[in-house]
Write a structure and sequence with these properties.
The protein is an alpha+beta fold and about 750 residues long. The strands form eight sheets. Strands 5, 6, 8, 9, 10, 12, 13, 15, 16, 20 and 21 form an eleven-stranded antiparallel β-sheet that branches. Strands 22-23-24-27-30-31-32-33 form an eight-stranded parallel β-barrel. Strands 34, 35, 36, 38, 39, 40 and 42 form a seven-stranded mixed β-sheet that branches. The relative contact order is 0.08.
Length: about 750
C-alpha cells in the first residue's frame, strides 16, 4: 500500500511571531508566512492565505506559479539560487523531492487525503522527511520556533545510491515580503569588528561569503532585510544568521519576477563533502529573527540565548586579563602583585594570557606545546594559581589549541599534522600554521594535553584563541580540503571538555572579535568583542555585536589610559562606562595605576556588581538619534521597573545643544524618577541642566546622595519616552549615565 503524500499546514506561534508552513500535496515545506502573529488560523484560512499569494502568469515565465520551498528547487522553475547543488559526475543534479513524513513536537502527522489540516503549536520542532527516488537522495528538514520567537532550520541530505554523490552547496532560504527594500549587514576588520553597512535590496544576489575557515572580523553576522529607513525602533525587519564557525554564506536575492529571499549555509570547498552510500551531510542551523526595528530582532536572539540550559546562570565574574599588562613577560612576582591589586579592587577572575607554555617567549615559537614551561615556571603554575585562589578569585588560562608554530616540538615531531595542500606550506600568519584536528591522532594529542592541564590546576576558565585564517587548509596526505572536518573537530573537542568539566567556562576569542556566531556560542560562554579596547571604538563595536548576542556574552574590559591599539588617551570614566554594558573586566597594568585611579576603578567595579543583574538580564535598547555625535544605549528590566541609560558623546556636534533626549522603552503608564549617576570623576565639559536638581550636582552611584525634588525628576513614562529631558553637554569621548526607577 502506497503511503499518501503529506498534506498539512503547520502553524507555530511564539512571543508575537507566527510561522506558517505549507506542507501540502507532498511538496517540500514552504514558508507561507513568517512575521507578525496571525492569531488562530483555520485550515480554510491557511489555504486562502496561500492561494492569495499565488501570482498570475505574465509573459515569458514558466506556465505554472513558482513555489519557493525552504530548500528551493530548480525543477519548479525557480530561477534563483537552488537550495541543493551537487551531482554524481554530472547526473542527479536537479532533485525533485516528495515528502514522506511530517512530525510536529514528536508526533507524526497523518495524511489520510482530502482537505489539509492545520497542526498548531507554540515553540515546537517540525521534522519533514522527503525522498527523490530517481536521484536516490533522502532529505530531512528541521524547522523550529524557539523561545523569543526565533526561527531556525537545517537540512540533512543522505545518499541512497551505491554511486558517490558530491555535495557542492546546501543553503536554506526564507522568503521575505516586497516591503523589504533595504539590506543591512555587518563588515569590519581587525580592531574594528562589526561595522554596519546598508544598501538597496535590488535585483540580483547580495552574497556574503566567509572563506577564512572561521567566522572573520568581516563576517556579515546578521543579514537584515527591512522596510526603507528601518532603525532600532521602527520598520519591519527580517534578519538571518548562519550558526557556523567555518566557511559560510549569508545571502539576499531578489529576482526579476519579484520574489525575495534571505538565507545562508555552509560554504563547501571543492570535493570537501563526498557522500558514499548511506552517508549524510547536515547543514548548520540558519536562524531567523523578525520584529519591528533592529532592537526587536536583537531581543529575540537574546531571549533565545538566555533560555538555553547552558547559558551562564551565575553572575558574570569581573575579569582581569594579563595580556596588555605583561605580554610575554611571565614572572611570578609581578603577576602576584598584579593579582593582589586586582583582588583589592573587587576583581573575581584572573586570567593568565599567552606565554606560559613550551618555548613561547614571543609569538615565533612554542605554539602547540601545551605544557607549562619549566624555564619560566620552575614550580609550575601552582604558586600563581594558589595565590590567585587564596585571594578569592578564579584562575583562567589562555590557550590556542588549533594553532602551531613550526618552531615547536609538536611540529617537528609531526609535520604531517600541519594543514597544507599542493606540496607547500601555507603562507604564515602571525608566524603560525593550523593543526589539523581532523586527523584522529592530532585531535587526541591536543585533547589529552588540555585534559592534563585541567587535571593539574584549578582552572575555572579558558580563553580559547584562534589567531589566523585557514589558508590552503588541506589534510595529509592527499591535500583534500579540510575546513569542514576541522570545524566539526573543534566542536567535538569543546563538547568533550565541557562534558568532563561542566563548571569550566570558555571564551571564544579569534584575533579579537572573530568567530562570533551561534555555532561556537553553543559551546562557549562569551566572546571577546575585539582586541581593540579603545572605548571610542568599543562604543560602536559593542553596539553592533549586540545585534546577535546579549551584553553578558560580550567581553568588555576597561582599557589602559592610552589604548595599545589606537594610541588614543581617555579618562577612566569613559573607559569604565563603556565596559559597563557587557561582561565587565580589566585589561590594564594595575601596578602602574595611581591610588586615585585604583579607588575610582574600585568604585566602577562595585557599581557594575550592583547593576549586573539588570545589565545581564534586561532588554537592550539602542536609541535612534539623528546626530552621529551621540551614541545612546539602555538596558531595561523585563518588568519595566528600572533602567540604566548611557548617553555617550563620541564626536563634537555641529550645534551647542542637542535638545531633549528621549528615554525609550519605558512603560508609558507608570511613573518614573530619572536621575544622573556619577561614579568617580564627573565627565569633562559637563553642563548639568536644571532638571538634575536645584543646588546639587548629581545622585551617587551607590544610591545615596540627594533625593526627592533635588535628585532628578519624576514623570510618567509616556512623557520620558515621547518628549524626553534636556541633554547635558559633555566633551567628546565622555559618558553620562542615568538611572530611571519606577515610583510606587
Amino acid at each position: 500500500m502506497t503511503t499518501p503524500p503529506v498534506h498539512a499546514f503547520v502553524h507555530l506561534r511564539s512571543e508575537g511571531v507566527s510561522v506558517l508552513l505549507d506542507c501540502t500535496r507532498g511538496r517540500l515545506p514552504a514558508l507561507a508566512h513568517w512575521g507578525a502573529d496571525l492569531g488562530e488560523v483555520s485550515a480554510a484560512d491557511a489555504l486562502r492565505l496561500v492561494e492569495g499569494g499565488v501570482h498570475p502568469i505574465p509573459h515569458n515565465i514558466v506556465d505554472e506559479p513558482v513555489r519557493v520551498a525552504l530548500l528551493p528547487e530548480s525543477w519548479t522553475g525557480w530561477a534563483g539560487r537552488p537550495g541543493l547543488s551537487g551531482s554524481r559526475g554530472g547526473r542527479d543534479w536537479s532533485p525533485r523531492f516528495t515528502t514522506t513524513a511530517l512530525t510536529v513536537a514528536g508526533r507524526a502527522v497523518e495524511s489520510p487525503g482530502g482537505d489539509a489540516t492545520v497542526v498548531a503549536g507554540g515553540c515546537a520542532l517540525v521534522e519533514v522527511a522527503a525522498v527523490d527516488d530517481v536521484a536516490r537522495l533522502g532529505l530531512l528538514l528541521l524547522v523550529e520556533l524557539l523561545p523569543g520567537g526565533v526561527l531556525r532550520s537545517r537540512a540533512r541530505v543522505t545518499n541512497l545510491a551505491a554511486t558517490a554523490y558530491q555535495l557542492d552547496d546546501l543553503v536554506l532560504a526564507y522568503p521575505v515580503p516586497p516591503v523589504t527594500r533595504e539590506l543591512l549587514d555587518l563588515s569590519g576588520r581587525w580592531g574594528r569588528e562589526r561595522s554596519p553597512q546598508r544598501r538597496g535590496f535590488t535585483v540580483g544576489v547580495h552574497l556574503r561569503e566567509g572563506r577564512r575557515g572561521r567566522t572573520g572580523a568581516d563576517a556579515a553576522t546578521v543579514l537584515h532585510a527591512g522596510t526603507p529607513g528601518f532603525g532600532f525602533a521602527h520598520g519591519e525587519v527580517w534578519g538571518v544568521h548562519t550558526g557556523w564557525s567555518g566557511n559560510h554564506t549569508h545571502y539576499a536575492e531578489r529576482l526579476a519576477t519579484g520574489e525575495q529571499v534571505v538565507g545562508g549555509g555552509e560554504l563547501l570547498l571543492p570535493g570537501e563533502v563526498v557522500l558514499t552510500e548511506g552517508e549524510s551531510y547536515t547543514s548548520p542551523w540558519v536562524y531567523g529573527s523578525y520584529g519591528t526595528g533592529l532592537d526587536a530582532v536583537a531581543r529575540r536572539f537574546h531571549r533565545y540565548l538566555r533560555s538555553r540550559p547552558q547559558h551562564p546562570a551565575t553572575p558574570r565574574p569581573v575579569t582581569l586579563n594579563t595580556w596588555e599588562a605583561v605580554y610575554f613577560d611571565h614572572r611570578l612576582e609581578p603577576l602576584v602583585e598584579l593579582a593582589e591589586k586586582a583582588a583589592a579592587i573587587g576583581v573575581e577572575r584572573f586570567v593568565l594570557d599567552d606565554g606560559w607554555f613550551g618555548s613561547r617567549r614571543d609569538d615565533h615559537a612554542g605554539l602547540g606545546d601545551w605544557w607549562v614551561s619549566p624555564e619560566v615556571w620552575p614550580q609550575g603554575l601552582h604558586p600563581l594559581v594558589d595565590r590567585v585562589t587564596q585571594l578569592g578569585m578564579q584562575f583562567g588560562l589562555w590557550v590556542e589549541p588549533e594553532m602551531v608554530n613550526l618552531d615547536s616540538d609538536i611540529a617537528r615531531a609531526h609535520p604531517e599534522w600541519v594543514m597544507a595542500t599542493g606540496g607547500r606550506t601555507p603562507v604564515p600568519s602571525r608566524h603560525q600554521q593550523v593543526l589539523n584536528l581532523g586527523i584522529p591522532e592530532c585531535y587526541a594529542h591536543i585533547r589529552d594535553a588540555l585534559f592534563a592541564i585541567l587535571a593539574q590546576y584549578d582552572i575555572a576558565y579558558l580563553k580559547w584563541d584562534h589567531n589566523r585564517d585557514l589558508v590552503d587548509a588541506g589534510s595529509h596526505p592527499d591535500g583534500r580540503p579540510g575546513v569542514h572536518a576541522q570545524t566539526l573537530a573543534v566542536y567535538r573537542l569543546l563538547d568533550e571538555l565541557r562534558a568532563a568539566h561542566p563548571r569550566l567556562e570558555i571564551e571564544s576569542c579569534s584575533s579579537g572579535g572573530g568567530r562570533v556566531d551561534l555555532g561556537i556560542l553553543q559551546r562557549t560562554d562569551r566572546v571577546w568583542v575585539s582586541d581593540c579596547i579603545d572605548p571610542h571604538e568599543r562604543q560602536m563595536m559593542q553596539r553592533w555585536t549586540a545585534q546577535l548576542l546579549p551584553p553578558e556574552l560580550l567581553g568588555s574590559h576597561v582599557a589602559s589610559p592610552t589604548s595599545h591599539t589606537t594610541g588614543r588617551t581617555h579618562d577612566l570614566g569613559f573607559r569604565a562606562a563603556t565596559a559597563l554594558f557587557g561582561h565587565f573586566g580589566i585589561e590594564w597594568d594595575l601596578r602602574r595605576a595611581s591610588e586615585r585611579d585604583l579607588a575610582e576603578l574600585s568604585a566602577w567595579v562595585a557599581f557594575h556588581k550592583q547593576q549586573r543583574d539588570l545589565l545581564h538580564r534586561g532588554d537592550l535598547v539602542r536609541l535612534d538619534f539623528p546626530d552621529g555625535s551621540m551614541t545612546a544605549t539602555a538596558v531595561i528590566a523585563p518588568d519595566r521597573s528600572r533602567a540604566l541609560y548611557s548617553f555617550a558623546s563620541v564626536d563634537r556636534a555641529d550645534v551647542v545643544l542637542l535638545g531633549r533626549l528621549r528615554f525609550a522603552g519605558l512603560d508609558p503608564d507608570r511613573r518614573y524618577r530619572a536621575r544622573p549617576l556619577m561614579v568617580g570623576t564627573p565627565p569633562s565639559g559637563l553642563f548639568p541642566p536644571p532638571w538634575w536638581g536645584v543646588g546639587t550636582a548629581v545622585g551617587q552611584a551607590s544610591g545615596g546622595g540627594p533625593e526627592g525634588a533635588h535628585a532628578g525628576v519624576e514623570l510618567p513614562g509616556r512623557i520620558l519616552t515621547e518628549v524626553g529631558l534636556a541633554h547635558a553637554p559633555v566633551d567628546p569621548d565622555h559618558v553620562v549615565i542615568f538611572a530611571v526607577d519606577a515610583v510606587g
